[in-house]
Amino acid sequence: IRKAQTAFKGPNIVAAFYAPWQETGLYSLRENAPRMTHVLPAWVHLSPDGGNLDLHDFDPQLTPHNNDVLDIAHTNNLSIVPVFSNAQLSDFDQVRAHRMLTTPALQDRVIFGLLRWVTLNKFQGINIDLEKLAPGDHALLIPFVQKVRAAFAPRGLSVSMDLEASAPISWRRVSAICDFVVVMAYDEHSS
User: Fold this and answer.
1) Each residue's pLDDT tens digit in the chain (191 positions)?
2) Beta-carbon contacts of residue 185 (< 8 Å; ≥ 6 apart)
3) What is the C-alpha to C-alpha distance for residues 114 and 53, in angstroms, rounded to an integer?
4) Main-chain phi, psi angles of 7, to 5 degrees
5) Cα–Cα separations (whole angstroms), residue 163 to 119, 142, 176
6) In angstroms, how far is the first alpha carbon of the chain from the final one?
7) Which long-range contacts (CB under 8 A, 24 or more apart) does 107-113 make?
8) CA-wise closest residue to 100 among 153, 154, 54
9) Which residue spans within the chain are E strands per DSSP?
């Protein structure tokens, strides 16, 4: 049984995403972990129905290196803040995100599932990465993140969010809700 870590409290965050499907990811994590504060593994996805979690990228039976990721994170006292996304493989699915963002009951089910999973695994929070949304759905992100925050904060769990550089959303409003944000200012998202 692993001891739960305390969420990182400090002036600087040095975080890195970990993609279990990239062969060099584990080597890179091992090499850089001593200089990091957080690891953000892409382990949890929104299911196609928009109301459940898909944990196939976390499953150690399917991805045995995840045990190594946990060992590296614990050895280096990294906060583990898994990424929750609307991606399926490398494609972000706006339909599943739309279903969840427009249906409060699905949001509640997803938030409860995330909270339960994060708590059971003694992670330090969740990173929200909902990308390539349908027109109009960006306006629904802030209320969703507020609901996540309301569920996670009383338990001392952090909430962070990834922001597409060109998405029509108030970075100031999102950053007021989240513990930190990641601005995706690389050419996958905008020029």
Assistant:
1) 333 454 445 568 889 899 888 878 899 999 999 999 999 999 999 999 999 999 999 998 888 899 999 999 999 999 999 999 999 877 899 999 999 999 999 999 999 999 999 999 999 999 999 988 898 898 999 999 999 999 999 999 999 988 776 776 776 777 788 888 777 766 655 55
2) 165
3) 8
4) -60, 145
5) 25, 12, 13
6) 46
7) 107/144, 107/147, 108/147, 109/51, 109/52, 110/46, 110/50, 110/51, 110/52, 110/53, 111/147, 111/148, 111/151, 112/151, 113/52, 113/53
8) 54
9) 15-18, 38-41, 44-46, 53-54, 79-80, 83-85, 87-88, 91-92, 125-129, 158-164, 180-184
Please report, for residues 25, 151, 157, the alpha-carbon distance to residue 164 in angstroms, rounded to integers and kept in the order given: 22, 24, 23
State the Rg of the chain over Cα.
16
Q: Are 111 and 153 in contact (CB under 8 A)?
A: no
Q: Model-level pTM? A: 0.89
Contacts of 23 (CB under 8 A, 6+ apart): none
Place of tokens 């991606």: 87
Question: Contacts by 89-92 with C-beta closer than 8 Å and gap 24+?
Answer: 92/130, 92/131, 92/132
CB 149 within 8 A of CB 177: yes
The length of the chain, given as a count of residues: 191
Pairing of strands 83-85, 91-92: unpaired
